[in-house]
Amino acid sequence: MLSQILIATYTGTSATYEAATTGGEYTIKTAGRIRKFILLACATAATSLIEGFGAKIKKAGWPYDQEIEGSGTGLRTAPVAAVIPPIESEVDLPVEKGDVLTVEFRHFIGTVVTPVLHLLALVEH
Q1: How far apart are CA 109 and CA 70, in angstroms?
Q2: Taking Cα atoms as reference points, which of 91, 98, 1, 94 lies closest to residue 55?
Q3: Are 42 and 104 in contact, with CB atoms under 8 Å apart?
């Protein structure tokens, strides 16, 4: 069975990695395998500026930190703001119940205005 899970959310504007606004540490509920990370970028106001953004996911026992990055569409203004497509990264990472994922986010290009980043995981149990 596959489940899509919201792992963390970030509303900051830091150019260097910093902890998620919510869910900076996510505890795995059931054993399985993470098959995909999905990074979503959206805005909290009628006008926003979102350029380069990324997330780093860490777990003890993984040989490497996982990083997923995307690029925005520049200045977005209502009523016809450009949609930023989801950024997907296919992986095959084992997780056990109780494992902790630590998530950090950053915006590495531009002066960011009213951003929200969400990190989801597609988990096979």
Answers
A1: 10
A2: 91
A3: no
pTM, whole model, 2 decimals?
Answer: 0.92
**What residue has token string 């119940």?**
97
Q: Which residues pair with residue 26 across a beta bridge?
A: 101
Euclidean distance between CA atoms 97 and 57, whole angstroms = 17
Domain assignment of residue 102, given as a range: 2-124
Q: What is the mean pLDDT of each run of 10 residues along the chain (125 residues)?
A: 95 92 90 97 84 95 95 78 88 96 92 90 96
As for how many domains the chain has, the answer is 1
Could you report the per-residue pLDDT of 81-111, keeping only the tens digit for each? 677 899 999 999 999 999 999 999 999 987 8
